[in-house]
Design brief:
The protein is α/β, with parallel strands linked by helices. The chain has one domain: Uracil-DNA glycosylase-like domain (Uracil-DNA Glycosylase, subunit E, 3-Layer(aba) Sandwich), CATH 3.40.470. The chain has ten helices and six strands; from the N terminus they run H-E-H-H-E-H-H-E-H-E-H-H-E-E-H-H. Strand 5 and strand 6 form a beta hairpin. It is globular and about 55 Å long. It comes from Sphingomonas metalli. InterPro entries: UDG_Type-4/5, Uracil-DNA_glycosylase-like, Uracil-DNA_glycosylase-like_sf.
Length: about 250
């Protein structure tokens, strides 16, 4: 069985559009390029907190992904008191790739799905460019509800990060893509520029996940020139995964 399902014609067209925007204009360059040669700080393992430390007494998070999914949308979730609706994660619970964003977009509530609208269409193109899709990745948000300010509140960021790390540990993906600076801070406790350009190891009870910190699609819409940087991150995300087919 192939690692990823075949793409249809629309997926190929979307991938070509993304490659063009990212500045990919040749199939094979004259000189080889080492995409992983960007100088970065040495990776430091990120260890998921122990269950006893992950939540205050009486609010321990469920230890199965099915139970966690219900808890995440319930009254014990950190942002349960915020206005609006909570948006559930989507995609396979055993996906090889997990994608985390910081919080729902303004239009996501009406659409009933994470990363909709223009940002969602761009995300779809980004995934298609590396042979992925919403149907093959596990997509979730650090904030299940959109904050009133549109930004993840710093005073609850650490708690939301604990919840997100617990979520990652339950899915136990092979790779994790973090989109946005706030997402990187919450999960890796580090700003994205400090950890980008390399595969960061994330340790959890079920093993280790390779993490790539990248740019959120909404930033890429505002600053298209950054798509080339995002493309390098996407290449890093799937590098070597084709070698481990089922």
């Amino acid at each position: 069985m192939d690692a990823y399902p075949p793409l249809d014609t629309a997926d190929y067209a979307s991938a070509l559009d993304w490659w063009r925007d990212a500045g990919v204009d040749v199939l094979v360059e004259d000189a080889p390029r080492d995409w992983l040669a960007t100088p970065i700080a040495p990776p430091r393992p990120v260890v998921a907190p122990a269950a006893a430390d992950a939540a205050p007494a009486g609010t321990a998070m469920p230890d199965t992904i099915e139970a966690f999914a219900g808890w995440r949308l319930g009254p014990d979730a950190p942002e349960a008191g915020w206005s609006g609706v909570s948006l559930a994660a989507s995609g396979p619970i055993d996906a090889r790739v997990m994608v985390l964003v910081d919080c729902p977009e303004r239009e996501d509530g009406d659409a009933g799905t994470l990363v909709s609208g223009a940002a969602g269409r761009l995300l779809d193109r980004m995934l298609a460019a590396v042979g992925l899709s919403r149907e093959t990745v596990h997509l979730a948000a650090v904030c299940a509800r959109r904050p009133a300010s549109g930004r993840m509140p710093r005073d609850i960021e650490a708690r939301l990060g604990e919840v997100a790390r617990h979520h990652v540990g339950l899915v136990a993906p092979e790779r994790l893509l973090l989109l946005g600076d706030a997402t990187s801070r919450a999960v890796l406790s580090a700003e994205r520029p400090a950890v980008r350009g390399g595969l960061q190891p994330f340790n959890h009870k079920r093993g280790q996940t390779g993490v790539v910190a990248s740019l959120h699609p909404r930033l890429l819409l505002e600053r298209p020139a950054l798509k080339a940087e995002s493309w390098r991150d996407l290449q890093l995300l799937v590098a070597g995964m084709e070698e481990r087919k089922a």
